[in-house]
Amino acid sequence: MSFNIKISNGKGNVTNLKVTKNDTISNAKSAAGYTPTKNWKWKCNGSVLKDENTIGFYEIEEDDVIIVSRNQPGGKSYK
Description:
- By secondary structure, this protein is mainly beta.
- 10% of the residues lie in helices and 34% in strands.
- It has 1 helix and 5 strands, in the order E-E-H-E-E-E.
- A hairpin with a 5-residue loop joins strand 1 and strand 2 (14-20).
- It is globular.
């Protein structure tokens, strides 16, 4: 059974995405147009969502909001 989640870029732009509990985070990112998937972080309920896990693994439900951000390259190591 599919349901809608909300994808937010943190700047007020929110889109709906239809998913199932068996969809992987990677597949959902691709369906939402966030490719290549490794360049994007999705967060929900205070957790960074790993690409290989499923929507159901994170207990994401109808109308939950996913916050999207780009991976940021790190700086120099702290010495």
